[in-house]
Amino acid sequence: MAIMTAPSSLPLIERPDKSLTDMVLQTIRDSIVNKTLPPGSRVSEAKVAAQLQVSKTPVREALLRLREVGLVVPCERGLRVVQPSIKSTRDAYEFRAGSERSSAFFAANRADDEERGQFVRLAQASLRAAEAHDGAAFRQYDRDFHHEIALASRNAILAQTVADSLVLTSVLRERDIAPSHDSIACGEQHVEVARAILSGRAERAGELMWEHVLHVMSLVLLADPAEQESGAGDT
């Protein structure tokens, strides 16, 4: 398989509230998500450092973190952006399902009234966006819904794990699938999860979230299987 090289320019995302390593990490991560760094492209520590006009140290630290997340993987000449495959996609979603089951369970026990109401509002907004065939709005409400529940778990490690899983599953094909009638079913599942959390039914909330994430996995795995098979050797 031919490995593409990274593009000549990656604008550094400057955030005064973040460390240099965090800014470098966010820049590389967002470049992977928006395909500025396309699947399979080689990521050179020296080249990225030159593009961002920073030393190699924050780039090295950022790439180590992105490797832990699964967004970059080892290759013969260093690192490359992960390529979608059936196995990598299934692995990522199954891991995400377990993490989000826990986040929904703990959120049902620990979220305050304002947060519980926010879950319901986001779930309903995602359903309305799906019914209106507004893919961009649906994806935004979908991400916000999952992120907010993870934060309400009051477990920083769990919240970071869910955030990383959301990015990884997005890169592994979910971002490339056009919203369809199935988005309505996903919106309806959001509403069910939100209502379970609202009423404090922790076990039920966790179970519903688990089923929801695995449902999304099944949709992703069914979409364009030929393209996923092209990277079937990835792990």
Automatic annotation (TrEMBL):
<dbReference type="Pfam" id="PF00392">
    <property type="entry name" value="GntR"/>
</dbReference>
<keyword id="KW-0805">Transcription regulation</keyword>
<keyword id="KW-0804">Transcription</keyword>
<dbReference type="InterPro" id="IPR036388">
    <property type="entry name" value="WH-like_DNA-bd_sf"/>
</dbReference>
<dbReference type="InterPro" id="IPR000524">
    <property type="entry name" value="Tscrpt_reg_HTH_GntR"/>
</dbReference>
<dbReference type="Pfam" id="PF07729">
    <property type="entry name" value="FCD"/>
</dbReference>
<dbReference type="InterPro" id="IPR036390">
    <property type="entry name" value="WH_DNA-bd_sf"/>
</dbReference>
<protein>
    <submittedName>
        <fullName>GntR family transcriptional regulator</fullName>
    </submittedName>
</protein>
<dbReference type="InterPro" id="IPR008920">
    <property type="entry name" value="TF_FadR/GntR_C"/>
</dbReference>
<dbReference type="InterPro" id="IPR011711">
    <property type="entry name" value="GntR_C"/>
</dbReference>
<keyword id="KW-0238">DNA-binding</keyword>
<feature type="domain" description="HTH gntR-type">
    <location>
        <begin position="18"/>
        <end position="84"/>
    </location>
</feature>
